[in-house]
Amino acid sequence: MPARVGLVGNPSDGYGGAVLAAALGGLHAEVSATPQRALTLDGSGVLAMWPTVQAWLECVDREGHGTEQRIISAALWTLVDHLRRTGLEAERLTGLGLRWHTTVPRSIGLAGSSALAVGAIDAASTAWGVNLDRRVIAALALRAERDVLGIAAGWQDRIVQSMGGMVLVDTASMDDLDGVDVPVVTIVGLPHGAHLDVLVGWAAGTATSSDDYHAPLRRNAASLVGSMSELGAIARSAARAVERGDTIALAEAVDRTWTIRQACAPLRADHTALVELVRSTGMHATTPGSGGSVVAPCLDERVTLAAIAALGAAGCAYLRCALA
């Protein structure tokens, strides 16, 4: 599963708004599932094993989801619970060998954790022969983090990573799929022959849990209603701009997202400084997630090169990637 970047409207998807976001090629979490007798979780230098799925479930009931592999464990638990609730498990829940690794930097706003959760659910359901709607996969990944692990999170990351490409995630209206509420999702694409790069930069030394940013916002949700509604409207407008190939309008929407977000739900100082560093070179830029990284549409090559130089001078990593 790829990393993702929120372009416009972020973080209104958690407040009945809409977000225009895209999968980011070049950074991926990979999860594979192989049917076997036992259940094994193998990743992050840790190998854990149980003789059966039931033995693992009993261990989770006693001890929780652990630490190093807790995202994978919570995602798998949520999938098993969903299959049992919907009567789909039958004889499918045989053992699995789940192996994973990731190149997505963790805890800097590029959705590294959700990439693992989506990947685990996708791989395990495929191995068990269960065909789930992509939005249901996203919903289960959200439940794993938000409800099982208690991490404040929204729809954007999981929908983008489950669907791929560029999407408008609109939570103003919801659908029911297999007993799960899911947002309306629109695939968004540039006109044939059009092209757009984005520059993404991050500072690994500023990594922090997304919960540190989102949890306080959830406690003050009532005060954010107006701003989140405005951000949602901007995201819907930006999606239409992309469809007609108006990258300037998209870039302006990126700027408006940053301005409104900083006014109502500002990032901490060092995360703000990273975005402002790129903006100081003349690029339209915002944070793609909860902080620690920056995303900017590449409209002018000279300005883009100046931003790359500024990121390098600040000791930041960066990636330039084409959006489909």
Kindly provide the radius of gyration, computed on alpha-carbon positions and rounded to a whole number of angstroms: 20 Å
In sequence order, what are the helices and strands, one letter per element?
EEEEHHEHHHEEEHHHHEHE
- Strand-residue fraction? 25-35%
The biggest beta sheet is recorded as:
7 strands, mixed
Mean pLDDT: 92
Task: Give a written overview of the molecule.
The chain has 324 residues and is an alpha+beta fold. The chain has helices at residues 53-63, 70-85, 112-127, 134-148, 156-163, 210-219, 225-243, 247-264, 269-279, 301-313, and strands at 2-8, 18-36, 39-43, 46-50, 95-102, 166-177, 180-188, 196-202, 293-298, 317-323. Strands 1, 2, 3, 4, 5, 6 and 7 form a seven-stranded mixed sheet that branches. Strands 9-8-10 form a three-stranded antiparallel sheet. A hairpin with a 2-residue loop joins strand 3 (39-43) and strand 4 (46-50). The longest helix is centred in the C-terminal third of the chain and has 19 residues, at 225-243. It is globular and about 60 Å long. The relative contact order is 0.18. The model has no long low-confidence stretch (mean pLDDT 92).
